[in-house]
Amino acid sequence: MSKKPVRPAPEGDVAISSRIRLARNLEAYPFTTRMTRAQSAEILSKVRNAVLDGEDSQLSGFSFLELQSMNTLDRQFLVEKHLISPEFAEGDISRAAIISKDGRISIMVNEEDHLRLQCIFPGMQTEEAWKLCTDIDTKLDGKLEYAFDKNFGYLTCCPTNVGTGIRASVMLHLPALSMTGYIKGILENCSKIGVAVRGAYGENSEASGNMFQISNQVTLGQTEEDIISGIGNITSQITEQERILRSELYNQNPLRLEDRIFRSYGILTGARIISSEESLKLLSDVRLGVVMGLIRGLELEDLNEIMLMIQPAYLQKLSGGQLKPDERDQRRAELIRMKLKDGVQQGME
Amino acid sequence: MLCQQCQKKEANVHFTQILNGTKIESYLCSQCANEKGKLSFSPQLNLGDFLWGFPGFGEGGGLPEAEQPGEVRCDICGMSFDDFRKTGKLGCANCYRTFRDNLSPILRRLHGNIEHKGKVPGKLTECIKTGNEIEKLKEELTAAIGREEYERAAELRDRIRNLESSGNKCGGV
Questions:
Q1: Could you say which of B17, B37, B90 has the minimum Cβ distance to residue A157?
Q2: A4-7 CB contacts, 8 Å cutoff, 24+ apart
Q3: Which of A29, A150, A192 sits opposite B173 (nearest CB)?
Q4: How confident is the model at residue B43 (pLDDT cuts 50, 70, 90)?
Q5: Active site includes A167?
Q6: What is the per-residue pLDDT for B64?
Q7: Which of A56, A172, B30, B72 is 20 to 30 Å apart from A242, CA to CA?
Q8: How far is CA A297 from CA A259, A262, A292, B99, in A?
Q9: DSSP characters for A70-112?
Q10: Residues 6+ apart with CB under 8 A from A202
Q11: Which of A19, A24, A75, A198 is catalytic?
């Protein structure tokens, strides 16, 4: 595994990534629910020009990916990298993703709203993501006329997004809270204060590999900064609880926790056939082992990379084409064995 | 409020799910919410029904007859409030203006608030600032008249006139 010197992600022991999404619509067109094919094509070209035509360095080097010219595998690949939503990947008509070179900025055109502008950063960096996102938004605002109302704010297709149009979310790895069952209490408390907790791949997915996405539900009547600091407060409280529980779990019975972690590690380094669900579950234990200093030689970035690579589309892209499910499970096991062995060997050097 | 699933226990979890591209929110007891986290949700519900069934809309949901917007349609996209009821999605920016009075209670339920705070498009920053300033001065004017401070009131009235003729006032927004 390449040992590039990477700056560790802030709060990376618990926080995987931070994301800000803004929903925007153009005043002059009906929302996606009622637009014609011709209108959707016009919107696409307007947004494309607004982003790509210009001298602005922040908007340079974006790729423009029109969905109808992409196959299912390529679309799925973008979903796995969290650059487009699963719902977006399914549609065809005049949809495009405009993605920055470093993958931090992506703009979905004609998702539920005309524009869904997203910035994603590693670790706990919601404020940084907001700063970038609002910068890009302001630049586009100069070129596109957004639908806006003095009382209701930015107007969105679904009333659940109206106002700021913001969704601030942080993905957290919460193995100790999950193992002990305390996660249930957290889920309940979050729901009471209007904070949503979902699985790793958005609203529809279950928490896989003990990954949870924490995000705001209220979008109207609070400033973006207030919403972001609210999510920041909640995630840092959850992070703190997770850390305390991790060390408590270890202190109460070190052997038991080590046993669990090294068994998972053992299966991953020995398995010849493995599903993505099982891998994510076991990798969650290994990640915990790395954070707690029990497994040496692996970096958190390596694990983040493995977790991405073992997803079906990524795996098939790596193998250069379509794979049947059983071929995928073999290829996945092979890849994990190789990556984990590499890491640990380098660690021993 | 009772759990919308078992109708027995007190609901204490706000549950959100997306099914067939539709966001579904429900109020459940912790046990049912836990079960739902594992199982798939009944796919018959849509957001429109849900917004309608929100507490405050009366038994069985629905607005009282007098408040029904009837056959009013958005004159830009042709959407009726009934269409919105069915899908939970609006048709265009003008729908918000057409159905403002009907949407306000729904937005209050969803967000606890119906006044936008936060970012404003560049073009509107000035006019919104001016609008807010005018509102504030008008309140002061009423208060000044109430206190019979007529000199102060005249001064406020002139400032309001100046602002209103400054061209910075928002148009239809």
A1: B90
A2: A6/A299, A6/A301
A3: A150
A4: very low
A5: yes
A6: 45
A7: B30
A8: 18, 14, 12, 61
A9: S-HHHHHHHHHTTSS-HHHHH--TT-EEEE-TTSSEEEEESSS
A10: A85, A86, A213, B18
A11: A198
pTM over 0.90: no
CB contact under 8 A, B121 and A160: no
What is the bridge-based pairing of β-strands A105-109 and A96-99?
A: antiparallel
What is the SS3 assignment for chain B? CECCCCCCCECCEEEEEEECCEEEEEEECHHHHHHHHHCCCCCCCCHHHHHHCCCCCCCCCCCCHHHCCCCCECCCCCCEHHHHHHHCCCCCHHHHHHCHHHHHHHHHHHHCCCCCCCCCCHHHHHHHHHHHHHHHHHHHHHHHHHCCCHHHHHHHHHHHHHHHCCCCCCCCC
**Cβ–Cβ < 8 Å for A154, A116:** no
Instruction: Say what the pLDDT of residue B23 is.
Output: 62
Q: What is the pLDDT of residue B66?
A: 39
Chain A nearest-CA distance from B145, in A, is 28
CB contact under 8 Å between A192 and B14, yes or no, is yes
> What is residue B123's predicted lDDT score, i.e. its pLDDT?
80
Q: B2 pLDDT band (50/70/90 cuts)?
A: confident
Q: Do A188 and B13 touch (CB under 8 A)?
A: yes
Distance from CA of A301 to the nearest CA of B (A): 29
Q: Choosing from A111, A112, A242, A299, which is the catalytic residue?
A: A112
pLDDT at B162 over 70: yes
| pLDDT digit string, tens, across residues B52-94 | 555 434 334 444 443 455 578 999 999 999 899 889 999 999 9
Taking the CA of residue B124 and the nearest CA in chain A, the distance in Å comes to 9
Catalytic status, residue A158: yes
Q: What is the pLDDT of residue B59?
A: 38
The answer to whether A21 is a known catalytic residue is yes
Coil, strand, or helix at residue A163? strand
Beta strands in A110-216 (DSSP E): 115-122, 148-149, 153-154, 166-173, 195-198, 211-216
* Residues A62-66: contacts with CB under 8 Å, at least 24 apart: A62/A98, A62/A99, A62/A100, A62/A101, A62/A105, A63/A98, A63/A99, A63/A101, A64/A96, A64/A98, A65/A96, A65/A97, A65/A98, A65/A99, A66/A95, A66/A96
Q: Residues B132-158: what's their mean pLDDT?
A: 91
ipTM of the complex: 0.86
Determine the pLDDT at residue B24. 65
Residue ranges in chain A whose pLDDT is less than 50: 1-3, 203-205, 349
Per-residue pLDDT at A231:
96
Exactly one of A116, A328, A331, A332 is catalytic; which is it? A116
